[in-house]
Amino acid sequence: MSDRQPTTDRGRIRIVGFDEATEQKRDSDASSDAADADGAAADQSIASRAATGIESTTASTSALAQPGRRLENAWRRFRRNRSAMAGLAVLIVMTVLAVFARPITVATAEVTVTLQPFSLAPSDPAAMFVGPPNASPSPAHPFGTDWAGRDQFSRVLVGGRYTLSIGLVAVGLALCVGVPLGAIAGYFGGWIDEAIMRVVDVLYAFPFLVLAIAIVPILEPVPILGSGYWTVVVALAVTGWVGYARLIRGEVLSVREREYVTAARALGVPDRTIIRRHVVPNAIAPVVVQATLNIGTVVLTAAALGFLGLGLEPGSAEWGAMLAQGRSSLLRGDWHVTVFPGLAIFLFVLAINLVGDGINDALEPNRDVDDDRRRMR
Amino acid sequence: MSLGRYVGRRLAVTVPVLFGVTALTFSFVHLLPGDAVDAIVGFRAVSPATEAATRAEYHLDQPVWDQYLLWLRDAITLEFGESPVTGRDVSATIGRRLPATLALGGAAWLLALAIGIPAGIVAAVRAGEPADEVGRLAALAGIATPNFWLGLILLFVFSVRLGWFRVLPPDAPLVSLATAKFLVLPTITLGTASAALVMRLLRSSMRRELDATYVTAARAKGLPERTVILKHVLRNAVLPVVTVAGLQLAFLVDGAVVVEGIFSWPGMGRLLVQSVLQRDYPVIQAIVLVIGIAIVLANLLVDIVYAILDPRIRY
């Protein structure tokens, strides 16, 4: 925005003082710059075209250049945030450990393709009696072994695959449903809004975990959902989308009143394009923040489902499911079976929360994460 | 807008939601794969006579719309029939379990307020100072700790190792010293995450209020900082925290589902998990309905109380 070409090509009427004023305002108010970059670009491109007399076809050609800049600025702010970077480092380490824990192979009838040959985990997470059952941590088994003599260290490493992928996929699916529905409700208003938001209200009457628990028996017999992994993912996505719908609807309600939306509408841009190009990009930042934070909530809920013995097959190396045996083993005095998987969940969710807060501070420093969390309800 | 009209409008929004909640709960049995009778009797092989009797009892021989209305009539009079798994009356079972959950949830809620409100005040007043940073990290840790994990660790340290608390709930009435003592650990487990939530919400709403001009005015007229914070700022800042009672209730219910299992507490949450594992659909249906309606009504109540306390929002 600030490195725009000099205004010599504007035609005969020279507008003096306008650019300096704009630039000063922009420098002093970085956050509104970030929020409105796309919109303001659209506004100005319309204005300059109108001034030079060029026929305007679309309102957003110059707007496309902006998001990159905006992300670059956000990344610079994010990098300066020490706790967020620490969280990011933890996430990266955990992801690498999970991916390289055991080799990943894709097997068809004839060929077996190895996608990832490394193996950080010393033994197969499902292999029983690689050591004595309920052994305490030792050099051979750093996290000890569980009741079936399975190596806890390997299971915790491989278990990260379930947790990380369930979190990402469930939140991704929920966003794919919630963002379009919420944006449509907010943009069009009227009976569309009423209909969508009443559905949201109804789903909101049920707590996250309770709804997921109730959905599991409905989803479980569906054949394509397979071994329970997709049951958990779909249950969490079905319960999760309502929050994003509500949050983005609130944002869209204010964005749709902006001049650039009115201008785009006046130019005859189809509603679909307005929503995709102008409304959603300017309303998405708080949703990105909440989605990041929600990966933590989803991971906790998935682990709770595993702990309760719902969804994934019993005995899966999922962190929550590993704790399902925790109560009986604790009562026997075997603390290590419980401590390590729980610690892994704790670290992951803590890191996600640090990163989420960091993203919020980077994208919209003046916005309050907790305020948005409240508004999702 | 007068209070009466506001309440009327708020009720008008609630009624369709209540219908939606009942309709969704009703359709639960019908969304299950296979015939609804199979679901209700728990997928056992039954004689044609029993099947016909079940069909008639649950009005499954009528159009779906009539089924819903008849089910709704039964639900309003709290008649959910008998559990096909245990053979006990569903309403009676829930009625027996409900007080235990209310006691645990209420205690956890009080603990959350007792920790969250003072911590939130300190964090807001000392924003940016070390105390605020410590509070922020503590709140994050509270949110990130899986409650089942915290419960297991507390159970291990204080009940198994130190022997301060019983492992199983005592065979005592709900209002008794032994029960109260047993409830200490489950309450801490359940209240921790809620306390973190209360703290963060109060901190953010107090930070907003602290910038208001009336705070400057109160300071300018020489009021002690303590009075400004506790009498002026807190009173305004606590309202937005109260409005999330629905969120808090949902949060506590979710927690109770897990925590009750760990501490063998005979509440609704444990009943729900048992019912899902045993595929006891009428019980699941009744519990989900009770929870849904409780949360809708809690939200309604909070909005009305809020409107009485703060007339500005009756726009």
UniProtKB/TrEMBL annotation, chain A:
SUPFAM superfamilies: MetI-like. Residues 31-43 have a biased composition (Low complexity). It is found in: Cell membrane. Residues 1-43 are annotated as: Disordered. Residues 160-356 form the ABC transmembrane type-1 domain. The keyword Transmembrane helix applies. One of its GO terms (biological process) is transmembrane transport. This is Binding-protein-dependent transporters inner membrane component. The lineage of its organism: Archaea, Methanobacteriati, Methanobacteriota, Stenosarchaea group, Halobacteria.
